[in-house]
Specification:
heterodimer, A: about 325 residues, mainly alpha, globular, B: about 325 residues
Chain lengths: ~325, ~325
């Protein structure tokens, strides 16, 4: 607490302090978010992570239009070639351009990460908020369920469920959307528990605070107390958890596709690219290196951003 | 304390039952018919197929099916593999030791790496060593095991030709040569798992150590004139390891299930590889049995983590 926030009234208003106060007022007011941003900027690697992620997102969104090599044109005369100007990341066993496939597949890998994170966060917030706000019986039932989900072995269960349901969903929604919905829903439904616990704990302690009582006195409804008054106080840690969940989901999707149980071979997500590369490692190491590098770069950036956000949004840390 | 352990064990039972219900529900909800092969066979008329279904109990109401399934499961009867016709339990007995050996070794090595580095990193916070160690740990857990595994094969098998990329259970050589061959083939699968685990653990050890190192009791120990080594090892480390032990116990099942991926990369003949090949062959009994075994492992280690935490930290109350 090194400095006085501009909104706080001074305890002893002497003339000097009043002059000081007016000079403070003339400065732009600092919100919690701008404080967090100042703190975040100090974490250079986190800022670098943001740049890498923005670049990757733009590249995968716009890239396929700029680099308009087909991702599925088979040409055996140029199979398993190394890097060249025509094919910056080389070609695969079928002579397809790996760079184009990485750009195209990156869309799906990133989309799976974000969508699965949204599912996990939404379920987590919902369960945690209801359990923490209402307490009592509802709370203990929801927390039992949360504990049970924590005890589930997530990777085997993912593989089991995909094994049982993928054919049906593929028939219903097509070869890309079917696995996409299944993988996103499953990763989301197996990863909401930490968020639920976090939100519940905050709700339990915050609902007894004076500002909630005040809100109740002026006639705020339950839902507006939950969403407008308590929720903003919980957002910090939830944002951190959400960031890290994107990285976790990307790893999980890549692992599933790598094992041959995620997306089908004609949908070149980064994990799927690794899956096909395994048989050609000796003659075409670039088929392994580039997809692995993309997964690593993305996850590393996300983890650094998460780390930076944790430092920036932690209210116990004094911001300078 | 004894009563606490008993109560904790008793609460694990409903969890196990709930998990078995989830697995059964997934199976029951799944589309597809176990007798779909017979439907395509013109020699089997529909009436016969119906009778087979009744004999197998597929027409029973769901609670009856569940209780039959669950009771055989808890007596260790996992049924027969669709593919090899062998009892699933025999397959598991064949595969489990390899998985436990690889993931157990990986786990031990990760502890041997993570604890000294984590402690040293915390003691010399912000030093060059700390910066290098934390950066490497960050890279380590951002690099999934299937990436490290493939990169290791590229480097150590294809480029340098030092280590074999395939784990064989059929090594014939006797004596020292055979032992050396067994050690060599286990190095990569174990190290891939160990490095990933060590990266995660090291951050926990460091954070926990940092929390303790600035506390009053550590200053008291120093002001008594104890040697610094003594202060760190006997005073700070012992307390810092309490939360770490919990994390360690909780992460053991993750290491074992994580072996699914490394076993696939290095063709290690363990449970994980059996699991994947069973999925590829539509071998449902094997898939279900392994999923359930993995669940049991998670529940058991959760239990162990809780109990150890209670033993190590007398501040925990068992009321």
């Amino acid at each position: 607490m090194a400095e006085v926030s501009p909104a706080r009234p001074q305890a002893q208003p002497s003339s000097a302090a009043a002059a000081d106060l007016s000079s403070l007022r003339s400065k732009k007011a600092r919100s919690l978010w701008s404080d967090a941003w100042r703190q975040f900027r100090k974490h250079h690697l986190a800022v670098a992570g943001v740049f890498v992620l923005v670049f990757l997102t733009i590249a995968t969104l716009i890239g396929p239009f700029v680099w308009n090599q087909p991702i599925d044109k088979i040409d055996f005369s140029i199979s398993t070639q190394g890097s060249s100007w025509a094919h910056p990341m080389g070609t695969n066993d079928l002579g397809q351009d790996i760079f184009a496939r990485i750009l195209w597949g990156g869309r799906i890998s990133l989309a799976v990460g974000v969508a699965a994170m949204l599912v996990a966060i939404l379920v987590g917030i919902l369960v945690g908020a209801i359990a923490g706000f209402f307490g009592g019986f509802i709370d203990s039932v929801l927390m039992r369920i949360t504990d049970m989900f924590i005890s589930l072995p997530s990777l085997p269960l993912l593989l089991l469920t995909i094994y049982l349901f993928r054919d049906t969903l593929r028939e219903k929604f097509g070869p890309t959307l079917g696995p996409f919905l299944l993988i996103v829903a499953l990763i989301g439904l197996l990863n909401w528990m930490p968020v639920a616990r976090l939100v519940r704990a905050s709700f339990l302690s915050l609902k007894e605070k004076e500002f909630v009582e005040a809100a109740r006195c002026i006639g705020a409804t339950r839902s507006s107390i939950m969403m407008k008054h308590i929720m903003p106080n919980v957002l910090g840690p939830v944002i951190v958890a959400a960031t890290l969940a994107v990285g976790g989901a990307i790893i999980t999707e890549s692992a599933l596709s790598f094992l041959g149980l995620g997306f089908p071979p004609d949908v070149p997500t980064w994990g799927q690219l690794l899956n096909t590369s395994v048989n050609f490692m000796e003659i075409a190491p670039h088929m392994v290196i580039f997809p692995a590098l993309m997964i690593f770069l993305t996850v590393l950036s996300i983890n650094y951003v998460g780390d930076g956000l944790r430092d920036a949004l932690d209210p116990r840390k004094t911001t300078g | 304390m004894g009563r606490y352990i008993i109560r904790r064990v008793l609460t694990a039972i409903p969890t196990l039952i709930a998990i078995s219900m989830v697995i059964f529900a997934i199976l029951a909800l799944a589309p597809g018919d176990p007798l779909s092969d017979l439907a395509l066979n013109p020699a089997v008329p529909p009436e016969v197929r119906q009778r087979i279904r009744e004999n197998l109990g597929l027409e029973d109401p769901i609670p009856v099916r569940y209780s039959k399934w669950a009771s055989s499961l808890f007596t260790g009867d996992f049924g027969y593999s669709f593919r090899t016709r062998a009892p699933v339990i025999d397959l598991l007995k064949q595969r489990l030791p390899t998985t436990l050996y690889v993931s157990g070794m990986a786990f031990l090595i990760s502890l041997l790496i993570a604890i000294p580095i984590g402690v040293l990193s915390a003691v010399k916070q912000y030093s060059v060593f700390d910066n290098v160690a934390t950066t490497l740990a960050f890279i380590g857990f951002s690099l999934p095991t299937f990436c490290t595994g493939l990169l290791f094969i590229l480097l150590f098998t294809i480029r340098l030709d030092w280590l074999p990329s395939i784990y064989r259970s059929t090594i014939q050589e006797e004596g020292l040569a055979g032992i050396w061959e067994r050690v060599r083939q286990a190095i990569m699968p174990i190290m891939v798992l160990a490095l990933f685990q060590a990266a995660t653990l090291m951050r926990f050890v460091r954070a926990s150590m940092l929390e303790n190192i600035h506390q009053d009791y550590v200053r008291t120990a120093r002001s008594k004139g104890l040697a610094e080594r003594h202060v760190i090892n006997r005073h700070a480390l012992r307390n810092a390891l309490i939360p770490v032990v919990t994390i360690v116990a909780l992460s053991l099942p993750t290491v074992i299930t994580g072996a699914v991926i490394t076993e696939q990369i290095f063709k290690v003949p363990g449970m994980g590889q059996l699991f994947i090949s069973a999925i590829q062959n539509n071998d449902t009994p094997v898939v279900m049995a392994i999923t359930f075994i993995f669940s049991i492992l998670v529940v058991i280690f959760n239990l162990i983590a809780d109990v150890i935490y209670g033993v190590l930290d007398p501040r925990i109350k068992y009321s």
